[in-house]
Design brief:
13 helices, Rossmann fold, alpha/beta, 7-stranded mixed beta sheet, single chain, 4-stranded antiparallel beta sheet, 16 strands
Length: about 375
Amino acid sequence: MTTGNSALLEIIRAEIQNRGPVSFAWFMQQALYHPEHGYYSSGRCAIGRRGEYFTHVSVGPLFGQLLAAQFAEIWERLGQIDNFVIVEQGAHHGDFARDVLESASKRSPNFFAALRYRIVEPFPVLQDRQLQTLQLFCDKVEWRDSIEPFVGVHFSNELLDAMPVRLIGHGGEKFVGLDGDKLVFVERPARDDIAFNQAVLDWIENVAANLQRGYIIAVDYGYPRDEFRPSVQGRAQHRHLDSPFEQIGYADITAHVEWTSIAERAEACGLDVKGFADQHNFITGILSELLRDELSKETDVKTKRALQTLLHPEMLGRSFQVLGLQKGASAAAAGSTTDPHSAGALAGFKFAREPHRVLGFSRKGLAQL
């Protein structure tokens, strides 16, 4: 069954009629990001109890407070510089940015004074909503259509899973074709000159080229290469759809992230893989190193419930992972330890295993053992 936004369906059908079957990546791009009718670009995307799905900001401000502490540590690692920039992509309505800025202003006033918050948002409807959310911090926040050079940290949460993917398996690729007016999968030979997650690889190249010094922290759900099985899913109102061809333009379409290829491409672009952990261990590290005293004094029931949601293995604690990448950190900032894994490890990766071993590839410049 093919359902969805009628104008968007006509655009997709016309493209297939003119050119033949299209890649699923092209279809996913239109469904999510068509300038007028896409699920995200039109502003239809909704999160929380009445939306399509829950995410970290749905449980309250705690996630932003935790990351604000991690960002402050990064600022210290970079020498407490002026004009420290937090770049966020996939900011939705700006709730995470507001939570980070509120927490930094209260807990780390020197850090707050030095930072700028830059939201990369190409869609005007989302810029307007973010502006409303962030009115109290209008002197701290700036908007850009694309990534520009910066020193600081690039942060994303559930950005990568919504980037278009090709559907490849067993030597073939699923394209999107037509059976009458109905969208259907059509099998074609797979091309080997374009990666299945080319959009994500292009993205990490772009961020790496614009990061002058600092870190990249990406939060999402997926697997290392050895555990990865490609799949996509559609979601609407907390319900998994039977097909990505249902409610096109009105529903979310996501794919699990294959972390290993991202880390490999990052190192090829001059970044260092500094950490990879599930969210439970990442947050536990931040609490242990940066917020231990505050947590011991915390009695608010809502905060405790939010922490349980973020940490619990059956909620968000194990399903999400965090990848940390670094560029241009000085030896002094990295510490004096001789252990290449623990040297300069951010608090969030305190309890993480050696990332190259977990991700299944050798460290840059070293032969595979």
